[in-house]
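Q: Joint fold for the lines below.
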Amino acid sequence: MATILAESPEAPSRRAGGASPEAVVVRFAGDSGDGMQLTGGQFTLSTALAGNDLATFPDFPAEIRAPQGTLFGVSAFQINFGSTQIETAGDAPDVLVAMNPAALKTNVEALKPGGLIIADSGEFGERNLAKAKYAADPLKDGSLSRWQLLAFDISALTLESVKPFGLGNKEALRCKNMWTLGLALWMFDRDREPIIAWLNDKFRKNPVLAEANIAALNAGHAYGETAELTGPLKQYHLEPVPSSPGLYRTVTGAEAISLGLVAGAQLAQLPMFFGGYPITPASAILHHLVRLKEFGITTFQAEDEIAAICAAIGASYAGQLGVTSSSGPGIALKGEAMGLAIMTELPLVIVNSQRGGPSTGLPTKTEQSDLYQAIYGRNGDAPMPVIAARSPSDAFDCAIEACRIATQYMTPVMLLTDGYIANAAEPWQVPDPASFTPFPAKFLETRPDGDEELKPYARDEKLARPWIKPGTPGMMHRIGGIEKAPGTGHIDYSPGTHQAMTDLRKDKVDGIARDIPPQDVSLGEAGGRLVVVGWGSTFGPIHQAVRRARAKGLDVSQVHVRHVWPLPENLGSLLKSFDNVLVPEMNTGQFKTVLRDQFLVDAKPLNKTSGQPFTIAEIESAIEAALGGHAGGEVDADTTQLPSIKAVNP
Amino acid sequence: MNDMTPVAKTTTIKDWETDQEVRWCPGCGDYAILKAVQRTLPEIGADPANTVFVSGIGCSSRFPYYMETYGFHTIHGRAPAIATGVKLANPALDVWLITGDGDGLSIGGNHMMHILRRNLDIQIMLFNNEIYGLTKGQYSPTSRIGTTSPSTPMGSVDRPASPCAFALGSGARFVARGFDVSKELPAVLKAGHAHPGAAFIEIFQNCIVYNKDVFNDFAAPKGAEDRQLWLRNGEPMLFAKNTKGIALDVEKLTLKVVDVVDGDWQAAGVIVHDVKNRSVAHMLVELPFGPFPMALGVIYDDPRPTFEAAVIEQNRKASEGRKPDLAALLAKGQTWTVTGTAQDPI
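A: Joint structure:
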């Protein structure tokens, strides 16, 4: 979240005397078919309703239905919530709910020493143990002694609780996730009512299933309440986090982008055309927008990525706000068409939900490795503004900003998010649309006085060309991807023309730097020994790490860049006011290179390319190393983090 | 065609010519096609301000620059996708798509298939010269086997695609053929324009530099009567000055050429052209030239609801009774309210 409150610099832990902690990290892990994402999602909602701040990290396999019980079929959902401001999904879980041996094996190493394991012993039969490559039952052989273990037969308890509804064994076992959720709701003193309402709505066509799931939920809750368990199962109450007064909801990045695009089109007073092609993790935006047709939105599922962007360009040409969305491989396919939008100077918003690459790469894992592609990845001198969202809720504002720049400057704009932002959820203070500044698009409908001929490539004070809609009488003209004369836009590829037009296109995009907020310091002050510079979804871990370091008295500040192209005008001088510049990125140092190139600053990279977000601790130790004269380097894949690569392939 | 054309405009051929110097090779078939289009548009009452020409890349795709209308010269193969966006954004526009055999069937084959199956209301003119002209003469996906070119010095070995068969196979509801210098071309264009939905028109076009006179076997004026079968709806399929006709070979379920004696085509079993007969259309587009004349004119014309009409209808239905209330949208789902005083951020 945007505002930061004081938090103890130590990692969240239980207070002395068994009192409740100020923040807790819970990871639900099970088979892909166990409904862990659903469980996590509903737990998130109940947490938000309880007034705790939170951040989530859903992690699921690329396979739709991996074979049951296998290590690669494990799906997990991590939530960090508490009575303080939360900005990351948490470094290491306090509680792990493991629905089968594979889930235990792939996730248990991540658990904090002394953390709590809740395991469904009913799933720890010989077959599942073999699938998870366990030689012996870990629940019995003492190998989990570093942690606290609570194992009970959730499967049997669930079957018992749904017995009255006469479900088949398979269907009955599907209610296991609700039983588990019920227990978790009890543990953290959560209200069951919103979940019950949700279940009734979800299964409104099958009331028996609704009742069975509710019964399982209640049984799990009652189990916590009545089972006379000694040991680690305790009830916690986390106080609501103090936040700005107002109306709140939870929002994922994909939702926030969709809402921001709707708001952006409304502020530009334009109908929106969205051309998309299914790709993970970007498809969610198409799924959201398709349900919002009353806002003047036309969605088009095209035959491929190229058609998706081309149709959006065609719609922009015809006077709508064209939008397309994809992920790395799809963005690569759209490259030539982006060049066309740059050359014809038409507004267009391109959303790139980044994932691990190259090629198919890591479809469901996060990375920030498309920065070069966004800034430079086209043929010719093809300047294009790029904006990067730092969190799910920030993606809303960034989407509006992308619409503003696209329509005001007649240019395609790329909005970068990543798999983490797209899937993660966080509380969001619902903005009041009346507080937004409209930026109505203008169409040229008559030839300006004194012009002997029509000039579709005339320039306004921002160097933008006029937008002329086909259908406007007397304004017929031709545009295209071939080089054209300034003003008239007639085909002209003489040397002077190309030079002049190349300069114009560059100057126009460079000029946007004057129309964006100057770069601020997110935490700390200008000048000092070290600045940690980030962009995109690394905001959270960098912010927390810098805050902890400052609490220890270290001289370090944070600068977070939203406009990654063109860069804010004051960014160079701001960076030069620090002795050292450290740039953590989930790539091999792309923004670091851009900063070095643009400002001749000795920016040092801190790279992580394991498909995992940075942990706070990783950046914290990099800060300490940098202040000790050893800046930068590479962060090893963290086996305690999602997904635990070494656990899967020991 | 365009259902929403307001009042027919009175224009002359001059109104459709731009001040741009035409840059095709002297003698190129494109000149004749350009003239045919400029002659057709005034006759159908088209309005230049409401007309959009969208093209891809290639010699043919320079076409929009020479039309005093709205024009968009896009990128190689992608014109169908761009046109789809234009038409969905403003269905009132009368959109023409100009493409060639390389642009429309090679790099853009995928988009061509989808614009046809979706049935966007648009006219698609595919200039087929069986060669890549603008890249200096390589063989194209419609080049005949054995075509020698800079990229196939020993002759091409791959089988050519048949544009009209491709179109029908993709679900086109209007398929027609003409050639550059034919006097019949404006009539074919008019029929395509009158068709609500995607109208696919293959136009044989003579590339005088790289594939000169490749269509002379049927397009040359001399002997044309024997080699051209002009199809007219409701009329018998006759050629060679009505001495020959096309009949159905019932045993082989194919078409055959029959002799017509004393004009008695019925006795010879010559079939009457029905533009709504899809089965016969499939046979006509596959007729091998040589044993058969070249089938020209409107081969198939049987409208179905258009893509944009369906999209608009769904948009309307989905919006029915729903107000575009942004504030309500943002506050959707389960919400909670925080009261009290905000704490200062550190």
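Q: Anything notable?
A: The domain at 13-214 of chain B is CATH 3.40.50.970 (Rossmann fold). Chain B is about 30% helix and 20% strand.
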